[in-house]
């Protein structure tokens, strides 16, 4: 039986923080949780975008909406945002690491890291570490990955693409890092006896602003044509958000699980458990990535 937003349990009294909540998957996730009564922190790159998204959702009713400026490309902004959440909310129940960038020309974050690795992985890694102390018992951390994780490789010898940069390889690396972080975090939570779940999810092929932003940034006519030809394969952002909503709220979601669309090739459809990329199943490599990430975030 298909799992939909109607199956989300009542979220009254619960607080969720969603990164990249002003558009696409993040906005649909915020909408669904707010309509089930959650207090939702919309963490966005700019406060203006967060406030505009809050105004849009407020007209639909539901739980309290809280705008937050949080730029994942700047670890100082991540730290400030986490401090504001702890001060304003006290504790949170759901952390949904949703925001991302996809296949831009090589750019650097405020700390000099390759932008996709910085935003998709390091920013969320740092945010999660800083918010772990304020997660309530029973909380969940959802790491939003991509089907690109299956093609990813962690290039420890050139994490920042300084020697050779391929936009799509860097994207796949960052999305694989999301899954590996989800699994390593769950192992560490288990070791501490913490009542918190760490789960990964991916949206399949969903229409969001990632595709046009990638095409615009790269100026690629070939990619633009490819997206037009592939358009029938895409599902709506609302459908694409279902796997991360399932990971965040479904009673049957498993710790260390990976959820995505259940249709052919996991490209579209209602959420179900998906296989994890074999590269993410090497616990030693996950631990190595964790250590490198912690050093980069605190260096």
Task: Report the span from N to C terminus.
Answer: 48 Å
Number of helices: 10
Broad shape: globular
Assign the structural class, choosing from mainly alpha, mainly beta, alpha/beta, alpha+beta, or little secondary structure.
alpha/beta
Q: Radius of gyration over alpha carbons? A: 18 Å
Mean pLDDT over the residues = 94
Strand order of the largest sheet: 3-2-1-4-5-6-7-8
**Quantity of strands, as a count:** 8
Q: Report the sheet-strand fraction.
A: 15-25%
| Contiguous uncertain segments of 5+ residues | none
Total discrete domains: 1
Quaternary structure state of the chains depicted: single chain
**Sheet with the most strands, sense and barrel status:** 8 strands, mixed
| CATH C-level label | Alpha Beta
Helicity range:
40-55%
In N-to-C order, the SSE pattern is EHEHEHEHEHEHHHHEEH
Q: What this model shows, in words?
A:
With 299 residues, the chain is of the alpha/beta class. The chain has one domain (9-204, 235-298): NAD(P)-binding Rossmann-like Domain (Rossmann fold), CATH 3.40.50.720. The chain contains ten helices and eight strands. An eight-stranded mixed β-sheet has the order 3-2-1-4-5-6-7-8, sandwiched between helices. The termini are far apart. The mean pLDDT is 94.
